[in-house]
Amino acid sequence: MEKRDLYDSERKLTGETVFKGEKIPEGRYIIVVLVFIQNSEGKFLIQKRSERKNGKYATTGGHPKSGENSVQGILTEVEEEIGLKLNPNDLQLYFSGKSEKERVFWDDYYIKMDVEDIKKLKLQEEEVEDVEWFSESEIIELMKQDKFFKNHYEEFEILMDWLKER
Predict the structure, then answer these.
(1) Which domain holds residue 21?
(2) Which long-range contacts (CB under 8 A, 24 or more apart) does 135-140 make?
(3) CATH of the domain at 140
(4) Average of per-residue pLDDT across 116-145
(5) pLDDT tier for residue 1 given thresholds of 50, 70 and 90
(6) How far apart are CA 154 and CA 149, in angstroms?
(7) What is the reported pTM?
(8) Do the beta carbons of residue 20 and residue 34 sit within 8 Å?
(9) Which residues contact 97 (CB under 8 A, 6 or more apart)?
(10) Cβ contact 141:66 at 8 Å
(11) Cα 43 to Cα 57: distance, rounded to the nearest angstrom
(12) Burial state string for 130-146 with b = 16 or more CB within 10 A and e = fewer than 16
């Protein structure tokens, strides 16, 4: 069972932990990380989540394990879920946020990289059914059809604004 570190409202480690699936105590927070991987053609590497994870399309993300910081957490999640190693020096944090309701801190990352053959990626069956490259308009269409995970789509919209400003 995975353990997660707990943070106070100022995002300072408390030394406390919870197990995955446990209720986050009042006044405590966990970290959620995700990454959008974009290739040189402008398409994004999107996963189709397993049915047990709602079966929708989403980007890769999750929660750092106890002892991991945000960057280490996203590196672990990407390697575990889709079998891809990312260079931490190429990651760009494009958004950090906090949800009082969900008691989480969000860290959203972006990386520009080409993946030679996505069919050779080792997918974590419990979490991921498939991966594909999608354009911005294809992702918007998936969302309109309620096939894209809403939380991740909201972070995608933030990313698109961030990319347009650069």
Answers:
(1) 3-165
(2) 135/42, 135/43, 135/44, 136/42, 136/44, 136/160, 139/44, 139/46, 139/57
(3) 3.90.79.10
(4) 97
(5) confident
(6) 9
(7) 0.95
(8) no
(9) 105, 106, 108
(10) no
(11) 14
(12) ebebbeeebbbebbeee
- What total number of domains does the chain contain? 1
137: which residues sit within 8 A by CB, 6+ positions away?
none
The answer to whether 136 and 150 have CB atoms below 8 angstroms apart is no
Distance (Å, whole) CA 19 – CA 5: 9
DSSP label at 116?
S
Instruction: Please write the tens of the pLDDT for every residue from 13-67.
Output: 999 999 999 999 999 999 999 999 999 999 999 999 999 999 999 999 999 999 9
Place of tokens 């990626």: 121
**DSSP 8-state secondary structure symbol assigned to residue 132:** E
Instruction: Report the interhelical angle of 150-165 vs 136-144 (nearest 10°).
Output: 150
- Only one residue has tokens 């590196």, namely 75
